[in-house]
Amino acid sequence: MIATFKYLFLAFTLSACMGAEGAGPWPLSGPMPQGERVPGPKAFELYCAENPADCTVPSNPTFKHALGRIDFELRQIIEPTEEAPGSDVWQRLDEAGPGDCEDFALTFRHRLRQMYPAFSAAFRIATAYTEEGQYHAVLSVETTAGTFVCDIRFPTCRTWESLPYQWRMREIAGSTTWEVFDDESIQTATAAIRKRGRR
Fold first, then answer.
1. pLDDT (tens digit per residue) in 50-85
2. Which of 91, 136, 90, 94 is nearest to 111 (CA)?
């Protein structure tokens, strides 16, 4: 409820978020549901231990951003690469090079938190299973228009419910625990969005 209240005045922030060319505004979405709190991925804990500033969340976000521009810029420097099973290391890229889904998400998250530190709580890592059953990580962005997702697999950020994923977990702002989603809460949230005709 508090997090929702914090973003009530931010609906105008999505006007320039559809790619680098500033195409039209995004369709309205809805928030991801809240899940049960669980420990986060071990690899994420290791990342936070080495980069504590990246995992510290200010409590009073105020948010204007150019999400599409950052998305475009990161796609010019990150070469999508899959890491071998069992050797996956979560890291952000500070210079051009290869990276996989969570590297893209962490780099995106770091860039946004550097540029808009007051809004850090709005930028959170989420995980899901893809349509092929692969475990996957993305960046979720909370706004009054709903939750948007920036994903290395798709050319622009888009509404969370429009992606072909089975959502699994999401980082909780300011906490070492994450929330885990259940299918029923996801289906309920998606149905509510469709009913409002906001997808």
1. 876 566 533 333 343 467 788 889 999 998 888 777
2. 94
How many whole angstroms separate alpha carbon 13 and alpha carbon 3? 16
Helix (H) or strand (E) holding 21: none
Alpha carbon 53 to chain centroid, angstroms: 18
β-bridge pairing 158-159 and 166-171: unpaired
pLDDT tens, 113-153? 887 776 788 899 999 999 999 999 999 988 756 788 999 99
Cα atoms in the Cβ-side hemisphere of radius 13 Å centred on 178: 18
DSSP E strands, the chain: 36-39, 78-80, 97-99, 123-129, 135-143, 146-150, 158-159, 166-171, 177-180
The residues, any chain, with a CB within 8 Å of residue 93's CB and separated by 6 or more, are: 77, 78, 99, 103, 107
Type and span of the H or E element at 16 = none
For helices 101-115 and 67-77, the axis angle rounded to 10 degrees is 130
Place of tokens 């996956």: 88
CA angle 43, 114, 129 (to 5 degrees): 35
